[in-house]
Amino acid sequence: MKPLVPDRSPRESFGAQLRSHREELGMTQDQLAERTGYSPGHISSVETGRKPPTLRFVRQVDRAFDSGTKFANLFLDVRASSLLQGFGQYVAEEAKAVEIRCFEVGIVPGLLQTKEYAEALATAAVSRGSITDAQAEERLRVLANRQKLLGRRPSPQVYAILDESCIHRVVGGTKVMAAQLNHLADVASFPNMTLQIAPYSMGEARSLNLPVYLLVLPDRSMAAYSEAAQQGLFEREPSEVQALLTAYHHLQVEALPQAPSRELIGKVREEIQ
């Protein structure tokens, strides 16, 4: 049996989870093939990452496993190949969320980015060779769809904490950055938005050091997404989500309130001109 390396790519992660779930059910590749209408060879190729799954395939797998939409959601990670592992699942759940909490370091959170700011980040990633032009376009499409959440009725309640580095790091040049800071000041006035800055003066009191996103879903269950340098992690396990939520609450208490945060954004906006 070919060993799997799930951390290598979303495709191989999908294959590893497919094999693991099949084996937990005591089901052979032949039996899964019979239930889905695909050949055993096709099942093997998907499990080992040689073939990507298709939407039809994952729907048949969910029916065969009686797993709801588990593998359909995992499929989003494979399709959204320019995104970190786990982010496709996060985006699918974010679209349904009634509350969104986020913390970012270094860059403005995607939901709050202007079009020009987002394009500057994507262009830089292409220039570094991190992604292709097509993947950059994909990232921007995903972001544009995510940002429609803010105009949804009813709108989700959004709590955004930005490390102070987010507003000092000039992205796209001073003109683009000035417009981005103006946009932050504008969205901070939305009735469904709470925007705070975690200032440098917090020092070691800052309870989070990497980006974290937390969701409250319509059934009041919670989900979390966190990022390391090259990997994202989508989490539904209550104990894991609760640990991140507790850290977020500590950060929220120590960060600047919204009014002083807007004042700091305005001050930085004046300085970059």
CATH superfamily annotation of the largest domain = Endonuclease Chain A
Known CATH architecture of the largest domain:
2-Layer Sandwich
Structural class comes to alpha/beta
- Percent helix: 40-55%
> What general form does the structure show?
elongated
Spatial extent as radius of gyration: 21 Å
Low-confidence stretches: none
Strand % is 5-15%
**Helix tally?**
12
Strand order, largest beta sheet:
3-2-1-4-5-6
Average the pLDDT over all residues and give the rounded result: 90
Strand tally = 6
Give an overview in words.
Helices cover 50% and strands 12% of the residues. It has twelve helices and six strands. A six-stranded mixed sheet has the order 3-2-1-4-5-6, with helices on both faces. The radius of gyration is 21 Å and the shape is elongated.
Write a short abstract of this structure.
The chain is α/β, with parallel strands linked by helices. About 50% of the residues lie in helices and about 10% in strands. It has two domains: about 5-80, lambda repressor-like DNA-binding domains (434 Repressor (Amino-terminal Domain), Orthogonal Bundle), CATH 1.10.260.40; about 85-110 and about 155-270, 2-Layer Sandwich (Endonuclease, Chain A), CATH 3.30.870.10.
List the helices and strands and how they pair.
Elements: H1 10-24, H2 29-36, H3 40-47, H4 55-65, H5 70-79, H6 87-94, E1 99-104, H7 115-127, H8 133-147, E2 157-163, H9 165-168, H10 174-187, E3 193-198, E4 212-216, E5 222-227, E6 232-235, H11 238-254, H12 258-271
Parallel strand pairs: 1-2, 2-3
Antiparallel strand pairs: 1-4, 4-5, 5-6
Helix pairs in contact: 1-5, 2-3, 4-5, 5-6, 7-8, 10-12
